[in-house]
C-alpha cells in the first residue's frame, strides 16, 4: 500500500479523536485542482498549544489495527474496515515534509493497539524520538498514550512530547465494562496520576535549575507540560451530572489541562448495543459551557446539576439555567457585589468581571458602561442593579423569565428538493399508519 493511501486511511481513522480540539471541522478538500486549502484527506487539523497559540497539526494514527473491541470505535477488532500501518520512518518523513512545506507546526499521534500496549507505545515513542533527537524537530508533539503500557514507557513518551493524553472514554467502570470491555478506569487513572507526578517533579526541578546562579552544563529533565483526556458522550446512558462529576474529579486529582467531550458519532456497521442516533450537538456544547463554569467561575457540579436535574438544559446555557433556579441571589449590584457573585451573573464573563471591578473604583457603573463592554443587556437586565437600573420585582419573579431567553420557534419548511416518494414508500407508510 502506498504512503498516500495509508495517510488517507489513518488520517480518516484519527478524526474521531477530539482530544486535540480539532474534531467538528467540516471536511474540505482541494485535491484535483479545485480551489485552494484543504483540511481533509491529509489529516491536517487545528489545535491549541499549552501557551494558547492555535496551530496546524498532522493528526494521524500510527495504525488502525487494534486488539481491543471498544464498541463505539471504528477501529475496533471486529470492525470491517481497511487496515493500515505506518512505520515510524514514514510518520517522521510525513511530519518533516509537511513541516518544511509550512503545512503544519506539529504532530498529533495516536494509535490502535497492535501486538501489545508496550509494543505500540515503543513505536509511538520511536517516532517522537527520531523527530526530536535525529532531526532536531522543535515543533509541537502531542502523543496519545496507552494506560496499560508500562510507566517507564509513558515517562519516556512524556520526555519527547509537549502534551500527552490518555482517553478515559467513558465516565464509569460500568459503562466501560459494557462498551469497552478491555479498558479499566483504575488503570487509566493510575496512569494519569503517574503523569501528573512526573509533570510536577520536572517542573520543580526546572524551577530549581533556574534559580542556580552558576548553572551546570547538564540540562534539567524535560517532560510534557500538560495532559488532557477525552470522554465520549451519548454512547452510554450516563447523565451529564455523571460526565461532569468525572471531569471535575480529573481536574482536581490530576490537574488535567482539558477534558474534551466528544459526542458519539454513529459509525459504519455499528455494534448492536450502540444507540442508533448521535446525541444532539448542543449537548456537547452545553457540556463545554458547564466545564468552563467549573474551571473558571467557581461553580461546582452539584450546583449546576442538582439531583432533580441530572442533565443540562439544552435550550439555555448552564449559567442562565442556574440563575433561574436560584433567583434568591439576584439582583446583584454590579457596583458593590464581590467578584464571586459577579461571576454568577448570566451574560457577564470573567474578562468583563475584571473590567467591572477595575472601572467601579472610579465611577458608579451604568448600563451604558456595560454596553461599552459589549455585555448583552437583554440577558443581564433581570439579574443586575446598576447606577441607573433596578429590575422590576415582577420580572425576576415571573414564571415567564425562562421563556424570554428561549430561541424563537422556527416554522418548519417543506423540502421540495427531496425526491418524491415512490409507490413502494407510500405503501410502506400506509401500512405503517394502518
Ligand atoms: S483501544 Fe482505542 S483504537 Fe482500539 S478499539 Fe479501543 S478506542 Fe479504538
Task: Tell me what you see in this structure.
The chain is α/β, with parallel strands linked by helices. The protein folds into 2 domains: 3-30 and 38-211 and 218-278, TIM Barrel, CATH 3.20.20.70; 326-401, no CATH class. Helix content is 39%, strand content 10%. The protein has helices at 3-14, 88-100, 117-134, 151-160, 173-179, 185-211, 240-254, 281-296, 301-304, 318-325, 339-342, 350-359, 367-372, 377-380, 393-397, 423-433; strands at 44-48, 54-61, 106-110, 140-144, 163-165, 226-233, 258-263, 332-333, 384-385. The strands form 2 sheets. Strands 1-2-3-4-5-6-7 form a 7-stranded mixed β-sheet. β6, α7 and β7 form a beta-alpha-beta unit. α2 (88-100) runs parallel beside α3, α3 (117-134) runs parallel beside α4 (151-160) and α7 (240-254) runs parallel beside α8 (281-296). The longest helix is centred in the middle third of the chain and has 27 residues, at 185-211. The chain is globular and about 70 Å long. The N and C termini lie far apart (54 Å). Iron/sulfur cluster is lined by residues 66, 68, 70, 73, 75-76, 112-113, 180.
Helix and strand arrangement:
Layout: H1 3-14, E1 44-48, E2 54-61, H2 88-100, E3 106-110, H3 117-134, E4 140-144, H4 151-160, E5 163-165, H5 173-179, H6 185-211, E6 226-233, H7 240-254, E7 258-263, H8 281-296, H9 301-304, H10 318-325, E8 332-333, H11 339-342, H12 350-359, H13 367-372, H14 377-380, E9 384-385, H15 393-397, H16 423-433
Bound molecules: iron/sulfur cluster (SF4).
Iron/sulfur cluster binds near residues 68 and 73.
Amino acid at each position: 500500500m502506498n504512503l498516500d493511501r495509508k495517510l488517507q486511511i489513518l488520517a480518516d481513522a484519527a478524526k474521531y479523536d477530539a482530544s486535540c480540539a480539532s474534531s467538528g471541522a467540516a471536511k474540505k478538500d482541494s485535491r484535483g485542482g479545485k480551489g485552494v486549502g484543504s483540511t481533509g484527506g491529509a489529516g491536517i487539523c487545528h489545535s491549541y498549544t499549552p501557551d494558547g497559540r492555535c496551530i496546524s497539526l498532522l493528526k494521524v494514527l500510527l495504525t488502525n489495527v487494534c486488539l481491543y473491541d471498544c464498541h463505539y470505535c471504528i477501529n475496533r477488532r471486529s470492525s470491517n474496515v481497511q487496515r493500515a500501518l505506518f512505520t515510524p520512518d514514514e510518520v517522521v518523513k510525513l511530519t518533516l515534509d509537511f513541516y518544511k512545506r509550512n503545512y503544519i507546526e506539529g504532530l498529533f499521534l495516536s494509535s490502535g493497539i497492535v501486538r501489545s500496549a508496550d509494543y505500540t507505545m515503543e513505536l509511538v515513542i520511536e517516532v517522537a524520538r527520531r523527530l526530536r533527537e535525529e532531526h532536531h524537530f522543535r515543533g509541537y508533539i502531542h502523543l496519545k498514550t496507552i494506560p496499560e503500557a508500562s510507566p517507564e514507557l509513558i515517562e519516556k513518551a512524556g520526555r519527547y512530547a509537549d502534551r500527552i493524553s490518555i482517553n478515559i472514554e467513558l465516565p464509569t467502570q460500568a459503562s466501560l465494562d459494557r462498551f469497552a470491555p478491555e479498558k479499566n478506569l483504575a488503570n487509566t487513572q493510575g496512569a494519569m496520576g503517574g503523569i501528573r507526578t512526573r509533570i510536577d517533579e520536572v517542573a520543580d526541578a526546572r524551577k530549581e535549575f533556574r534559580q542556580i546562579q552558576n548553572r551546570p552544563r547538564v540540562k534539567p529533565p524535560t517532560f510534557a507540560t500538560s495532559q488532557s483526556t477525552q470522554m465520549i458522550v451519548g454512547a452510554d446512558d450516563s447523565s451529564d451530572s455523571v460526565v461532569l462529576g468525572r471531569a471535575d474529579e480529573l481536574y482536581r486529582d490530576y490537574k488535567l489541562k482539558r477534558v474534551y467531550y466528544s459526542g458519539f458519532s454513529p459509525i459504519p456497521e455499528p455494534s448492536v448495543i450502540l444507540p442508533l442516533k448521535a446525541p444532539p450537538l448542543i449537548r456537547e456544547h452545553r457540556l463545554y459551557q458547564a466545564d468552563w463554569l467549573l474551571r473558571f467561575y467557581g461553580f461546582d457540579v452539584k450546583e449546576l446539576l442538582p439531583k432533580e436535574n441530572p442533565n443540562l438544559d439544552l435550550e439555555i446555557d448552564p449559567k442562565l439555567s442556574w440563575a433561574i433556579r436560584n433567583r434568591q441571589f439576584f439582583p446583584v449590584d454590579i457596583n458593590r457585589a464581590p467578584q464571586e457573585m459577579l461571576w454568577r451573573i448570566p451574560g457577564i464573563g470573567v474578562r468583563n468581571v475584571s473590567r467591572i471591578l477595575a472601572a467601579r473604583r472610579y465611577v458608579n457603573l451604568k448600563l451604558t458602561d456595560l454596553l461599552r463592554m459589549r455585555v448583552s443587556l437583554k440577558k443581564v437586565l433581570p439579574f443586575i442593579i446598576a447606577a441607573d437600573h433596578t429590575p422590576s420585582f415582577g420580572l425576576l419573579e415571573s414564571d415567564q423569565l425562562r421563556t424570554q431567553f428561549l430561541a424563537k420557534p422556527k416554522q418548519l419548511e417543506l423540502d421540495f428538493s427531496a425526491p418524491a416518494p415512490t409507490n413502494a414508500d407510500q405503501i410502506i407508510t400506509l401500512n405503517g399508519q394502518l
